[in-house]
Amino acid sequence: MEHAEQYEIRLPYVRLVTNVHGKEAPEEALFQVVGPGSPRKWRVAVERLAYYFRREFGYDFPPYTADEADFGSGLVKDRVLVFFKETFNRRMEGVLYFYGAIGVRWRVWADAPASWSIAWVWFHPYERRKGHLTSAWPFLIRTYPDPWVEHPVSKPMAEFLKKVGHTRPLEKPPSPK
To answer: Is the CB of residue 33 less than 8 Å from the CB of residue 24?
Structure first.
């Protein structure tokens, strides 16, 4: 029997504090860049979004964990673009709600040169098809050039990639090393 909690989505929120990776994002962006040096509470909030991705797409494990950079230096280049809204509640001034994320990883492939890869993308269902990925795409391509998009690629993501003319990721990515 399924439980109602299985369908519940609670957007994580964090206090607006200094994020060492924050300067990596354009000043006007509606996303922050989260990396291994970001506040732990921010990384935990991103992990919650990764668990929503895992649950929605039926994966065995989330594509991101808050402590993953602690497991080895191979993950220090990895970043997550996390989309946020500021709260308008006076009692919660200085709070950001995270509603979407794009996970970008530096991959070392067994059968191709090392390169950037978009490992996962998840937005709250109410925030989908509102242009968030489209507005972030120029930054993403400029900062993480010519990325693969890891498979499986959902139908909406394949349509988006076709719309922006990004055809390389529609091929199957190389094998991880």
So the answer is: yes
Contact 80, 46 (CB under 8 A): yes
Domains and their CATH numbers in the chain: 9-170 (3.40.630.30)
- Tokens standing for 97? 């709600």
pTM of the model: 0.88
Q: Is 135 helix (H, G, I), strand (E, B) or coil?
A: helix
The model's pLDDT over 99-111, given as tens digits with 9 standing for 90+, comes to 999 999 998 888 8
- Show Cβ contacts of residue 6 under 8 Å, excluding neighbours closer than 6 positions: 55
Give the gyration radius of the chain's Cα atoms.
16
| Amino acid sitting at position 48 | R
Integer Cα distance of 9 and 52 in angstroms: 8
Count of CA atoms in the C-beta half-sphere (13 A) of 22: 12
